[in-house]
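Record format v2
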Amino acid sequence: MPVKILVSACLLGQQVRYDGGGKLCEDPRFARWQAEGRFVPVCPEVAGGLPTPRPPAQIRGDRVVTEQGEDFTEAFDRGAEIALQAARAHGVALAILKQSSPSCGSLFVYDGTFSGAKRPGEGRTAALLRKHGFKVFGEDQLEEAERELARLERER
Ligand code: SF4
């Protein structure tokens, strides 16, 4: 069995983003890992019960809110738990999640002002996965992810 990777569903082109679109990662490594059967796709926001499309939300303090102040925290945290359960159930060894998302961001998130500005930080799902020992990379860190994958394969 190949080392499994939890992956943001939108990076596989699934149309699950807040705007109803996907965000296909066109890096050839992605296509290879998919062909090797490594990916376990998850969209935490959809899994948490939010519709597609949905209003964009950002992290503000300890909450996840829309620009109009609607509080989505509960759905985001439910989605994070479901992503963690999926990671455990499928025995994934690492995660590659969409950078800057309030769920999936692992280095940066939008800063809560809805101005397009980002700040260092992590989304709810990335944070929960890390808390439980999973390594999380963004689609902008595929070299690091590839190195980690190679290390895990060597250890088998
Ligand atoms: Fe993609 Fe994650 Fe947002 Fe779902 S929650 S659309 S997987 S970035």
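Residues 4-155 form one domain.
The chain has a mean pLDDT of 97.
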